Amino acid sequence: MITEVTAKSQLYDALHANNFQYQLINQGVMTFHKWSKYLPPVPARILEFGCGNGFLCRVLAKMGHDVTGYDISGDYEHIGYEFTKEPVYLVCEYDCIVSFDVFEHLKIDEIRDILPPLFARAGKVIASIGCYAANRLLHETVLSPEGWLELLNEIYPAFQWDVIETFQRHTEGDTPVMIVKGE
Question: In the structure, what pLDDT confidence band is assigned to residue 6 with cuts at 50, 70 and 90?
Fold first, then answer.
């Protein structure tokens, strides 16, 4: 299922594990105001797919949601939510799946294999996706915002996919990010 992603996740952890600003931005917290209004009402069962150190899981749990965090990288302290490295999420149902800066780290065939059964377990998906990524070391799939929407519609047409917002993450010329919602 997931091949060399484990090695890349270790590299990702080495680059970003102690970078607090990067964790805030990439785990959806800095953009919380842009997408949180699309969350289901509390208490909802939420899966964060690619939760990293679980910072956003803790935020969602403190809001009153029942949160599961899934990530294949890092061993972090998991407080206030359930955490797993195993794909047990495929046997649970969720009101919403959130995923921030994860999809672009998967290869196209992994996206086609992993995401449809994952999306089938949820009533809604909210995700941020890095577009046009110049960093091919960590980003396996490099598409324009239109290309990502086309791919999401192809792999899971049961959802209506909409772009919530597209923005520059850090500075001019940096990787644009789009936040999408499917339901």
Answer: very low
